[in-house]
Write a structure and sequence with these properties.
Strand content: 5-15%
Helix content: 25-40%
Number of domains: 2
CATH architecture of the largest domain: Orthogonal Bundle
Oligomer: single chain
CATH class of the largest domain: Mainly Alpha
Order of helices and strands: HHHEEEHEEEEEHHHEEHHHHH
Number of helices: 12
Length: about 325
């Protein structure tokens, strides 16, 4: 059994299982084992695993599995049973040499977003399969008390972007200003939601998430009100593969704003570009500067979380190097 010395959710040191705070937030106060009786590497061809994966309605390239808590254990949900959690093991695509590090990467990046940058994220952690491999676990924010409590719609759907109307890469088309315009149109009290969205866009750039596409931003509807969904699928993609684009959408921040000289010359945006983007989406300069100032230096807490994460040592070094490179790009303008 894998030895644990930090909380598998909050990464706080001194815990051999989930900390009290993690138990409260992630498992609604129920004590849960961080070990699951599944080996996805061996069991992926088993019928239960196939059926569970096929029943998931959440889109995405990485395999996702519906799960529930049962007598203090995490298990796959049965057919017709309301799932309350999603499990994401290492992708089954064997061509990706660093694939087994992906669950720990996503967990770390989500924790940095929440703990250091105050981004509202889907509650998450890791658990461990029979072979000791980390498996990312996230609590479904659209389910409460065992029932769906809100409707979730991603911005590909909101902006009517479909594979039929475009191509298989439809979710990467467009720009972030389109999402901002939809937020202003749909949410009456849009300013706080816009600031959160802006913070997410800057974070994705600074932490090298080159997969921040239209389907990775959503609105949730509770009753008659819409809200920006908590951040999800945050990951430093560049430690695994480089797409050649700093941003997840092909048209970048916005076609309506002039690029900085730095952006024009290097192909990489800097702070000035995000200042212009904030103005374009209607965020007051004072609020935008408050967000941008947070990214001018890498906080020591970020390094602490990286060091305590479940990434291996090589990946920890790569993760640090990449975010340091992004920070240098950012502060040039």
């Amino acid at each position: 059994m894998k030895a644990i010395n930090v909380c598998p959710a909050t990464l706080k040191p001194g815990y051999s299982g989930y900390s009290p705070r993690a138990v409260k937030l992630l498992f609604d106060g129920v004590a849960v084992s961080p070990f699951i009786d599944i080996d996805f590497e061996k069991d992926r061809d088993q019928q239960q695993t196939k059926d569970n994966m096929n029943n998931m309605s959440i889109s995405g390239a990485q395999e996702k599995f519906a799960a529930v808590i049962d007598n203090g254990k995490i298990r796959l949900s049965h057919e017709g049973e309301q799932a309350t959690y999603v499990l994401k093991p290492a992708p089954f695509n064997l061509s990706l040499s660093t694939r087994k590090q992906i669950p720990a990467n996503e967990h770390l990046t989500m924790q940095i977003a929440a703990q250091v940058y105050g981004i509202r994220t889907a509650v998450n952690g890791v658990c461990f399969s029979r072979n000791g491999q980390p498996v990312y676990i996230t609590k479904r924010f659209d389910v409460e008390g065992g029932k769906k409590n809100c409707l979730q719609e991603d911005f590909a759907a909101i902006l009517q972007m479909t594979e039929e109307g475009s191509d298989s890469n439809y979710k990467y088309h467009g720009n972030y200003a389109q999402i901002a315009d939809a937020i202003r149109k749909i949410i009456p009290a849009w300013m706080p939601q816009m600031e959160q969205f802006f913070r997410m866009v800057v974070f994705n750039y600074m932490f090298a998430n080159e997969d921040a596409h239209m389907k990775n931003f959503s609105l949730v509807k509770k009753g008659k009100e819409y809200f920006l969904a908590p951040a999800y699928d945050l990951i430093n993609t560049c430690v695994h593969i480089q797409s050649g684009s700093d941003l997840g959408l092909l048209d970048g921040l916005s076609p309506d704003i002039e690029k900085s000289d730095v952006y024009d010359k290097t192909g990489h945006p800097c702070r000035l570009d995000f200042e212009r983007f904030a103005e374009r989406i209607g965020l007051p300069k004072k609020r935008a500067d408050m967000v941008l100032d947070m990214f001018m230096e890498i906080q020591e807490e970020t390094y602490d979380l990286i060091n305590r994460s479940f990434l291996n040592d090589k990946m920890k070094r790569s993760y640090k190097r990449i975010i340091e490179e992004r920070k240098e790009r950012f502060i040039r303008g």
